[in-house]
Amino acid sequence: MNSEIKQSVGENTSAVKSGQEPHQRIPTDIPRKPLTKKDLTSDHPTWCPGCGDFSVLASFIRVLEKRQFPQENIVTVSGIGCSSRFPYFVQTHGVHFIHGRALAFATGVSLARPDLRVIVFTGDGDAFSIGGNHFIHAARKNVRMTVITMDNCVYGLTKKQTSPTSPPGYRSKTDTWGAVDNPINPMKIAIAAGATFVARTTHTNPAHMIEMMEAAIDHNGFAFIECLFPPLYPSVTSVVLFISVFLNLFVLFSVLRILCGLIFFVKYFPPLNHSVTSVVS
Amino acid sequence: MSGQSENLMGNGDGLNIADISEAVIRIAGNSQDGIQALGGFLARLAGRSEQDVMTYMTIPSTISGGPSIFQVRIGSGEVLSAGDEADVLLAFYQHSYDNHINSLKKGGLVIYDSDHVKPREDLLGVYNHVGIPITSLTVEAIGGTTRDKGKNIYALGLIARLFNLNTQKLEQLITEKFKSKDPSVLRNALTAFNAGYNYSLGNTLKMFRFARSQQKERAQVVMSGNEAISYGLIAGGVRFGAGYPITPSSEIMEILRAELPKYGGMFIQCEDEIASMSVVLGAGYAGKIAVTATSGPGLSLKMEALGWGVMAEVPAIIVDVQRGGPSTGLPTQVEQSDINIAVFGSHGDAPRIVIAPSDVEDCFYTAIEAARLTRKYQVPVIILSDQAIATRIEAFVEPDLEKICQNFDLDLTPVPEHLPYPLSAKDGIAPHVPPGTRILNGKYPVLTGLEHDETGHPTGSPKYHAEMTSKRRRKLQALAESLPLPEVYGDHEGELLVIGWGSTKGPIREAVDRAREEGLSVGSIHMRYIFPQPKGLDTILSRYEKILVVEMNDSGLYGYGQLAAILRSIYCDKRIHGFNKTEGQTFKVREIYGAILSEVGNKRASEEPLKAPNQSVFNGDESFSK
Lengths: 281, 626
Known about the structure:
The complex is a heterodimer. Chain A is an alpha/beta fold. Helix content of chain A is 42%, strand content 14%. In chain A, strands 2-1-3-4-8-7 form a six-stranded parallel beta sheet, with helices on both faces. Chain A has a two-stranded antiparallel ribbon with strand order 5-6. In chain A, α5 packs across α6. Chain A is globular and about 75 Å long. Chain B has 20 helices and 23 strands. In chain B, the strands form five sheets. A seven-stranded mixed beta sheet of chain B has the order 11-10-12-13-15-14-21, with helices on both faces. In chain B, strands 3-4-2-5-6-7 form a six-stranded mixed beta sheet, sandwiched between helices. Helices cover 35% and strands 21% of the residues of chain B. By secondary structure, chain B is an alpha/beta fold. Classes of the chains: A alpha/beta, B alpha/beta. The interface between A and B is large, with 56 and 67 residues. β2 of chain A pairs parallel with β17 of chain B, so a sheet runs across the interface.
């Protein structure tokens, strides 16, 4: 449990204190060591192998490591979805809120405590379907926060249903003959709603993602980053099949390549001794 | 009417003046006539003159227009309810006259606008009729271009003359009200007021004067329930809020949006009810005590987020100003039918605190109490107000702010380690560590709606779900132990206990008084803590032969109102019965009195007929003439 200091303070809530700024009250005499990747990582992520979320997590930790923000002043907020497991995997103050309302919650945190850096991790369903209204209004109000949407165009946590960013014709459990609705373009919505920082990046370009994250965190207002990556949904068979086929093919091709190489080599570059001997002979 | 000292003073004007101790004035007109403003002036004047006052109003849910009434009861002693029957009726239109003439006491005084109203011949002998062409006189007084705007102020002048009210204070109130508008508005208002005051009511008409009330130790404040809750929240240390406009709670949002910035706080107008609840929880997580105000439909929308607040143990205050339901229901009328959703709403086992203020003064103190409870127990608190308290104006003794003000300062002292959900904590209550607090072992918590272990890490383990569910329950059980028992009004044991909650306190107490005057042994308690309930309530219940729960909601499928059903489920007491009303209007004293008689007074009632209601002092005097 807490220290005695904390408990005594906790009970004495009605004590009127001087109007110091909150962050000034943290004693500076407690030494700080530079934060490393180890300090900043928490649980091991439970995402599917190959998911772009890993790239976002790695980039975010790289940004924290690079910028060395005080750990306690960062609040990660999320709603519901694969992406929204994020706060469990970073060693900062975190909140795992209800589906779609993470932006509203983050609005409360950000406005109540301007000294905190609020970063919202959300998915395409969380941000643009159930939470679409909150997205528009958080952008309109230009509340200071960073919103990172991991857009994989599918509901992954509930196992492959159509999301608002799924392309037409996309086959999912809810659209077995292919999605019919036109997808949302998050960029257009963010700009139309008045977001003051809008960026799009992808998991295949971590350097760009890190650059965008840094710029977004530094932005004094509503900053929105859409991280695009292809849909990947958790199906044990599909993942096993994918891995086994990939490995088998890889092994097969490797063996073939080695064999071909050997044949090629033997055919065109016959052993020196032999040729020499043959020439000599 | 109880003041009977007929002190007929023939003063210089040759007027008759009667001293009275209280009066019920009903003003009936249309909603755009400004009769709420007129009633408000009377109520505020009474409050400033150390009179006790209570008001009651109905507003149509149309956008503009429609019949509306405002009833003011002013008394020199304690005023418990707005009164069943009026002494004076001021009728602006024919429909006002026709619909409200029956609410007048026999022999009461009706002042009607003779431009619009034609009195009924058969009633001329029953009530004292005074016809005044209010509309045309107002136009005459302030000029033809303004049409009939300002006739409410003209009527205020008439009432001021009739009751010998303090014109200086009234003029000051009018000035305060209109000073922010165009100077011509104020000038017209004062002209109309003086014209009304100087209208010759006729030398033979009896005038009235309120007896001086006892000098109170502290000054009085006059406000509505919504105002009292808003200022109570500020006094309670609430510095953050979010809301979405909804009748009848919008006033709280309007006041806090204007007032909180003065105290270093802020109130946010959100995109919807769900967002406002989420914002409040976000601020609560960030270390502030935050409030959202809503009504029934909004409360329904907030339920999922409220459940998160219970699960993640984050403080929040939700003010529910109840109106008739379900769905859009009766937006401008009263009902006490949100107790079930307040106590049981949201899925899963989600215990939270529900408290209900009983009058305007209690609104102020309940708001302070809510802030204290949510901070201490880290659980959302719902304040169940209702439309009747929210809109009525009462006077009460000015609170001692030095003593009662709470201040929750943000504490970000570093802690060596932190468990957000410690199972070993006494009664499961642990202080919240807001973000910004450095945790020296480097293990930072995640507050979550998933079932979690002590660190906040999600777990599906049967052990943790059972233990955490019990932790959230134990907090409220500990609270129940510390709650005070409700005060017993009337007999402490006897034939019948009347249980009420919310805005019904005044009529219940008057009905109990009346029943006791009749020789029945009746007591009453008024529940402030709806959930959890104070421990030991059953000791009070056991002292009575019968128990009657009076509430403004439906008697339900099985014959019990919402509080009655909760009480029966807690105390397994078959003597608990309900008396319900679902008309969208407050209880009248005589209705509750009738229910008391039908419970315990059957034998007596059959022996002696009911006493006729008190006769009005406005009655039986020859001096009343048209």
